[in-house]
């Protein structure tokens, strides 16, 4: 349906004006650079350590996704409710599903900018050697999965709450619950 496209355009314009859009990328790159620095101080940057550095950077990015992405989406619907603009959106031909899809897509694109910002840092282990394309593809799939679940946690918390702090705390709790479910489901967490 074409009624969702203006909502997506509106959300893209609104998110482009938010400072956290830019801070998100800076926080992600800073986390990976700090992880690289700590890895280098502890193990050094020898050519044989590319695989270990990639694993450390992948883990850092995975953690950053679970922290930053729910924060990114935690207030998207609740802000509309607080400002009284959610009712105005329902005066248009948009349905509730259209609004959630538009917000999810736009915030998913914002979360993808985190991925694009850290990509140059993630190329360092490839240059050091020892990282296969299979490992890189697995990292992309794991992080894409984490991004989808973290987005879902933020959107769900935002839909349930009207207050910003309550939505943020709800997003953090839901993200922890989703991460725990994924770990138990994949057998990565032994209970």
Query: Number of DSSP helices?
Result: 8
- Can you tell me the residue ranges where pLDDT is under 50 for at least 5 consecutive residues? none
- Please tell me the overall pLDDT: 86
| Secondary structure: number of strands | 0
User: Mind describing the biggest β-sheet?
Assistant: none
Distance between the termini: 45 Å
Please state roughly what percent of the residues sit in beta strands, choosing from under 5%, 5-15%, 15-25%, 25-35%, 35-45% or over 45%.
Answer: under 5%
- Percent range for helical residues? over 70%
Which structural class should the secondary elements be placed in? mainly alpha
Query: Which geometry do the CA atoms define?
Result: elongated
Q: What value does the Rg take, in angstroms? A: 19 Å
């Amino acid at each position: 349906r074409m009624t969702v496209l203006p909502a997506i355009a509106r959300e893209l314009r609104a998110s482009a004006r938010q400072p956290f859009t830019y801070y998100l990328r800076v926080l992600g790159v800073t986390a990976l650079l700090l992880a690289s620095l700590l890895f280098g101080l502890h193990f050094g940057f020898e050519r044989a350590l590319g695989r270990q550095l990639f694993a450390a950077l992948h883990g850092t990015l995975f953690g950053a996704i679970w922290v930053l992405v729910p924060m990114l989406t935690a207030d998207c619907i609740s802000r509309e409710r607080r400002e009284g603009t959610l009712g105005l959106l329902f005066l248009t031909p948009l349905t509730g599903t259209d609004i959630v899809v538009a917000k999810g897509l736009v915030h998913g694109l914002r979360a993808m900018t985190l991925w694009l910002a850290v990509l140059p840092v993630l190329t360092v282990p490839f240059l050091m050697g020892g990282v296969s394309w299979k490992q890189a593809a697995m990292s992309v799939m794991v992080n894409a999965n984490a991004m989808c679940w973290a987005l879902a946690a933020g959107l769900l918390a935002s839909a349930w709450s009207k207050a910003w702090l309550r939505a943020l705390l709800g997003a953090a709790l839901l993200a922890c619950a989703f991460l725990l479910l994924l770990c138990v489901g994949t057998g990565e967490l032994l209970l």
